[in-house]
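During the reporting period the student researcher (J.K.) took over the structure-prediction task from the postdoctoral fellow and processed the backlog of single-chain submissions. One of the processed entries is reproduced below for the supervisory committee.
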Amino acid sequence: MAPDTALQADPFPVQDPAPSLASPGGATPHPSRPGRQLTQVDLWSVAATSALVCLALGVCLAVAASLTWVVIDFLNPKPEAGPSPVWGLTFLTVTLMVEVVLGTALATAAAYFYNLASRCTGGVHLKVRDTEGPSAVEVRTLREYRRLRATLHRYAAARLRPATPAGVQVRQVAGVQGAEH
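J.K. obtained the following structure tokens:
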């Protein structure tokens, strides 16, 4: 007969590793939080990064505008009816230069104002996740995603079944649909 383990005393009791941190005044100090505190942003780094990002967006805009210009030129029966390509390239170049300069200036100004505000507020605390596994929100989101995906698959299976032509019998063979005449 097995001894009753519920009545036996635990030889290694679990102890609280951290004693109470209450101060004599009654206020509890703030425990250390994992993560980083973002208090300052280097303005030159922001300016260089934003200039490169604006330049890359400008290249994308130039490619899109060039492709659009080629398509419009191809579809236009009277080439002399629209604006000239020189005017289009000039306008595109000026627009891209203004976009890069303004984008860089706005990003640098935003970083400067962030530095001013972080002096008063202490900056932004970036928390490193200290729990294992997904959070409750992630679990609910994943559950809802799976439910919606199953509903979509059922709907697609019901609506998108291939129509069987007359005189063809469909039979299930090892998980694959086949047709025989």
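The committee noted the following: DSSP finds three helices and four strands in the chain.
J.K. will present the remaining backlog at the next meeting.
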